[in-house]
Amino acid sequence: MGIASSMETTKVVFLEINQQINKISFSKHSCSRDIHELIANIADVSKYSIITLTDKHDVHVPVTPAMPVNTERSPYVVTVKMPCRRESKQNEKKAVQAAINQVTEQLNRTFKVDEFKKELSDRLHQVERRLEVEGLRIVEIEKCKQDITSIKDQIWASHKNYPDNCMSDDKKITLKRDVPSYPKYTLSQETIDYLKKPTFDSWHWEPNEMLSLLEHMYHELGLVHEFNTNPVTLKRWLLCVQENYRNNPFHNFRHCFCVTQMMYGMIHLCKLWEFVTREDLGILMTAAVCHDLDHPGYNNTYQINARTDLAIRYNDISPLENHHCAVATQILSNAECNIFSNVDKDRFKRIRSGITMLILATDMARHAEIMDSFKNNFNKGFEFRDKEHLDTLKMVLIKCCDISNEVRPMEVSEPWVDCLLEEYFNQSDREKSEGLPVAPFMDREKVTKPSAQIGFIKFVLIPMFETAAKLFNQIEEVMVKPLQEAKDRYEDMKTRGEKASTSS
């Protein structure tokens, strides 16, 4: 692994120096000054010389780690201009450049603004003192300040454009609009009944309508009464949740609604209120609502490989899921949006712990661990009164709901596959541009809709829902059977696609 990683970060460039071909190699993480000194050393000239590179079309090539790779037949021509200033002046310039290079390298290693300020201030003071001692003119000191300020501005601009920069677990979340922004909808009995079905089609509902449907679920399940929640607070909480879902192709507020609606449907399908408390139902529903809050559209693998702030903060352990939990807690910490504000301290702690446990369970890296635990409990004889048994059941339920689209009819589920692939392709394109590993199932050049779904349905969805059906038999007909039909449909789609490509 170390050898492969080293090869990926090394560049080889061919140079023509004094009509002789030379080959140099350097790390992509080298600084421009390192490459400049390497070329100067090969050319046997002072490292303070002015060195320029031109390609076969006489186009200037920058001496940076990002210079394009060439071949031995098309080397870059090296032109050297010897320094014309006195050695003392060169030493002064060397001191200035060395200080600027040190600051640049330090800034490139971090995106922490507070450290930027302290490091830049320290370096600037060092440069000023050195220049004063060596008698450099005040104009050159100001020039040095401008250079460092320019570097600072460039890094800060880069920091603002960083994909995860806007995600912070420390930010204060406030509601941007108040309750009157969405009206109270009167739901027909047909809609109320349809809302309890796994076949529910969310594509026909606008965001404000989905907010009203979620509000209805909390009232209908008795959760507003259970937690003594102010109905206006429930509206504000739902609005704030909606505002904190991003406009991603897949992980957006409509996905949040679908997962919550499926949870609501499974509660009614399995008559869960006969086996668990209303508090547990509230934990299941609220975890479903909050499970992907502020999702950036790039998964945990990207977060870890790109060494984002979230991956660093959570030590590469479920960074996104931990962030979803943190944002959910921040929303509840706002008194205007806290649907559990009227429960006592111990109960709130228990509810928050339950929601956190379920959101963390949606990390697919823990799939085998959770399913094995649930199967072991079932084989020993499942006990609803056993907290550990009940916790594993709740984790399996939210996992089922999170990836349940293929349970729905084809006209509902297939557009979600397109949305998911779009988000995958966005990530893989970014990973390619940043030199990060790309998962084959996300690569637009390798994956197709059937290939993306067949294995997932066959080896993840069907076994998981079949396991849940052992405890609740009604799941078999309503959910497992549609999954098997979906698998057969995608296999047929794959076969027809292969025949079409063969005939053409």
TrEMBL record:
Zn(2+) 2 binds at residue 292. Zn(2+) 1 binds at residues 255, 291-292, 402. AMP binds at residues 251-255, 292, 402, 453. Keywords: cGMP, Hydrolase, Metal-binding. The active site is at 251 (proton donor). Its cofactor is a divalent metal cation. It comes from the Eukaryota. SMART domains: HDc. Its EC number is 3.1.4.-. The keyword Transcription does not apply. It catalyses: 3',5'-cyclic GMP + H2O = GMP + H(+). The keyword Hydrolase applies. Pathway: Purine metabolism; 3',5'-cyclic GMP degradation; GMP from 3',5'-cyclic GMP: step 1/1. One of its GO terms (biological process) is signal transduction. GO terms for molecular function: 3',5'-cyclic-GMP phosphodiesterase activity; metal ion binding. Binds 2 divalent metal cations per subunit. Site 1 may preferentially bind zinc ions, while site 2 has a preference for magnesium and/or manganese ions. PROSITE patterns: PDEASE_I_1, PDEASE_I_2. InterPro entries: HD/PDEase_dom (IPR003607), PDEase (IPR023088), PDEase_catalytic_dom (IPR002073), PDEase_catalytic_dom_sf (IPR036971), PDEase_CS (IPR023174). Residues 175-497 form the PDEase domain. Belongs to the cyclic nucleotide phosphodiesterase family. PDE9 subfamily. This is Phosphodiesterase. It comes from Lottia gigantea (Giant owl limpet).
